[in-house]
Amino acid sequence: MKKAFRNFYKNLFLQSRLFAGLGIAAALYLISFFLPWLSIVPTLFFCTLLLLFFADVWIIYRIEGIKAYRKAPDRLSNGDENDIDIIAESLYTFNIKAGIIDEIPFQFQKRDVWYDITLLPRTPVEYRYGLRPTKRGEYAFGNLMVYATSPIGLVSRRYIFEQTTTLPVYPSFLQMRKYELMAISNRLTEVGIKRVRRIGNSMEFEQIKNYVVGDDYRTINWKATARKGDFMVNSYIEERSQHVYCVIDKSRVMKMPFDGLSLLDYAINASLVLSSVALRKEDKAGLITISDKKGAVIPADNRPGQLNKIMQVLYREKTRYLETDTDLLYHTIRQTLKQRSLVVYFTNIESLPALKRQLPFFKKISMFHLLLVVIFENTELKTMSESPASNVEDIYTKTIAEKFVYEKKLIVKELAGNGIRSILTSPQNLTVDAINSYFEIKAAQKI
User: What does the UniProt keyword field contain (predicted)?
Assistant: First the structure.
């Protein structure tokens, strides 16, 4: 009995309408002090308010009138909007105004999560909201609380539903699925993926098929045409089973944040998508992570579980705070890669002296493999360099920003002068630019 009363007291909340009624009653009592003929009015008003209060409490507590639960995915995608659904149903015979609080993980640092909905009798209502995590790891959800208010609106009752669960945040698999679906439906151009003209034909013959408008007339098979009595053409496919390695620098230079995510997380998300695209092109995808120590190494393969293996490794990767050992990177690549491969190296080179230290090892790698160095563009500095200057301080700031932006361009030029391909891209365009470069390399048959 004592426990039941404690639960009743803890879950009963007084509404502003009740306090407004008490304020009006107090004002009427004050007025009746000066106008004695009104003395009965405040008493009647207060008694009516008291009766409504007890009636409201009885109505809202007479049954367990609310059912609710949270429907969430098995895992969350880092850097993407993840849909979380709340399904609530009222067992009362009248409309209920409900406020919902979902105890979301502390990593989001939100203290104003309140959703207002109206529940009709015996009609489930689904409310959807989105969460965008910016770090990989485990995110713990708490309870789901619903505050139910009757049409009288003097009190509300809190219902607490135990919905505690912990969800892992993986690299951006939603982005990966988006690109996969667009590739299947030939809609990659909508997100900036270019249609690359193939230079010549690869040596892998696929089949002889009927000529359709748009086929290259140079591929007409005249012998088959003579036998069939209709134009037949040779069909070729891109070379398969080529090795594509994503190499991720996880040193301190990748700790820099952009739009909530670190550069390491952008590189991880892009690597996952690029590996997925390579596997869909029937190439073999592999992964290497490096800093001052050798990290994870996954040999290139195209078996069904390869992408999941890459995702599990990327899920656990964290930034280290020392500089990358490029000599170690070179020896790791030489030991792991047994044939000529495309090596996509995600890093962040900020200055020419930093490039000079790494360039000898880049040259050695490019002697055996096709090296593609992906460098991040500092969009904040670029915006600063393009903004107009209004005073002397702005002029100094703009000049320094222009110097750093120009130095990034010099880094790209220096790499090109040494025969090394590179991409200078902003974090938000990283995935698209990496896929475009992969397609261009495939089309040019340079692997």
Answer: Membrane, Transmembrane, Transmembrane helix
